[in-house]
Amino acid sequence: MAETFDVVVIGAGPAGSVAAQYAAEAGLSVAIIERRTRVGEPVQCGEFVPGVEETKAIFDKCGDIDEMFNVPSSIISKHTDEIIVHSPKDKLYKVPFIGFSVERKDFDKFLAIRAEKAGAKLFTSTHARGLKNDTVITTKGEFKGKVIVGADGPLARVGSWVGLDGPTLLAPCILEELPGDFEPKLHIYLGRWAPGGYAWIIPKAKSANIGLGIQHNYTEQSLRKLFKKYLEHLGLGDKKPIFKSGGLVPMSGIVKKTVSKNVIMVGDAAGMVMSSNGGGIVPAMLAGKIAADSITAHIKKGTPLDKYEPTWRAGMSKPLKNAQKTQRVADKFFKSDTQFDLSLSIVGRRGLERGIKCRPLFGI
Ligand SMILES: Cc1cc2nc3c(=O)[nH]c(=O)nc-3n(C[C@H](O)[C@H](O)[C@H](O)COP(=O)(O)OP(=O)(O)OC[C@H]3O[C@@H](n4cnc5c(N)ncnc54)[C@H](O)[C@@H]3O)c2cc1C
């Protein structure tokens, strides 16, 4: 016998937990299906979150979001006030940007617990394998839902079960957390260190999350080899990592369609990543809330579920599309460090700031 819920959310990442929390707060019965044994582990993230004021400036049509981003200080690892962009020839561009690094495993757990406190039921070690009409088939039995939420990350399997396309370009990333005392600034390295992407240093309390992401069509070198060179360049080649990880970042932009039948997609599954800076936590959470509101209106008032589509696009697509345009401009210069350096000097610090903050690169 299938357990029955109003909403079955697949994936307890930021998108799924926020969707589950707000749907449960609205009085719906909600199940969250998560294949991992412990939510948020292993960490596959640079662990950087823009401050709430930066988020509000980027996603200025998403309404009041303070409460959603009200996270306990114990989860915040280090506050940062600047992003320092290193050109391929090591010219520095300093962009003011307030944010913080988190212990991502604790961050995801906090969001899942917040959803549970609102009334959602979390099922860990439970892998969703398929969908038959309104019933999700998992490794731990069947879950029936009026609405199914595909919050299952970049591979977007849930959407594919109802014919929805997920991201078509996924950038492979590699990272290590290294011990040490790092200044409260986020560093981004462009050009040869990470062809088609960028390399980062994200400072944490007593360590830094250091990594890079690339597009394979810009280099024949392996991720591991590039990463070794990058660590050596930073003088960190002989440090013993606290942990090593990697993952995939959607780079193809937002998908064409996010609703089909009784299924909606949120977060990475729908390509909702700021591709100019790789940030996906914030858009995943914002979309999770919009998804919950749309599902609630659908179940309680009979509003068509596909109202979700224009609603999230009205709130979020402009900055996400700007970010993707910036990424496309950058893509043109990855083949040559000299050209990349020149283009950065034309774009300048202000242009970089606009790119990072998901505004039009050239101000129009
Ligand atoms: C290396 C790397 C570094 C990054 N750095 C940053 C950063 O610094 N800042 C930032 O904002 N973003 C960063 N991102 C992006 C960010 O991690 C994602 O955009 C964000 O996690 C998206 O949230 P989500 O809830 O959509 O998906 P996810 O966080 O991927 O959550 C999906 C969940 O679904 C579960 N799941 C998947 N399939 C199934 C299934 N069939 N059944 C049950 N459960 C399933 C997964 O186990 C997972 O818990 C980074 C990504 C990578 C890979």
CATH topology of the largest domain: FAD/NAD(P)-binding domain
Mind summarizing the main beta sheet?
8 strands, mixed
State the distance separating the first and last CA atoms.
Answer: 57 Å
Give the total of beta strands. Answer: 16
Number of helices, counting only DSSP H or I runs of 4 residues or more:
8
Task: Determine the structural class based on helices, strands and strand pairing.
Answer: alpha/beta
Taken as a percent bin, the fraction of beta residues is 25-35%
CATH class descriptor name of the largest domain: Alpha Beta
Cofactors and ligands: flavin-adenine dinucleotide
CATH architecture level-2 label of the largest domain: 3-Layer(bba) Sandwich
The pLDDT mean sits at: 95
Radius of gyration: 20 Å
Order of helices and strands: EHEEHEEHEEEEHEEEEHEEEHHH
| Poorly predicted runs of 5 or more residues | none
The coarse overall form would be globular
Helix coverage percent: 25-40%
Number of domains: 2
CATH superfamily of the largest domain: FAD/NAD(P)-binding domain
Secondary structure: elements and pairs:
Elements: E1 3-10, H1 14-25, E2 30-33, E3 48-50, H2 52-58, E4 76-86, E5 92-102, H3 104-118, E6 121-123, E7 128-132, E8 135-138, E9 141-150, H4 157-160, E10 170-179, E11 185-189, E12 198-203, E13 207-213, H5 223-233, E14 243-250, E15 259-260, E16 263-265, H6 281-301, H7 308-331, H8 337-356
Helix pairs in contact: 1-3, 1-6, 6-7
Describe this structure in words.
The chain is of the alpha/beta class and 364 residues long. The protein folds into two domains: 212 residues, FAD/NAD(P)-binding domain (3-Layer(bba) Sandwich); 122 residues, D-Amino Acid Oxidase, Chain A, domain 2 (2-Layer Sandwich), CATH 3.30.9. It has eight helices and 16 strands. The strands form two sheets. Strands 1, 2, 6, 7, 8, 9, 15 and 16 form an eight-stranded mixed sheet that branches. An eight-stranded mixed sheet has the order 3-5-4-11-12-13-10-14. A hairpin with a 2-residue loop joins β15 and β16. α1 runs parallel beside α3 and α6 packs antiparallel against α7. It is globular and about 60 Å long. The termini are far apart. The model has no long low-confidence stretch (mean pLDDT 95). The protein binds flavin-adenine dinucleotide.
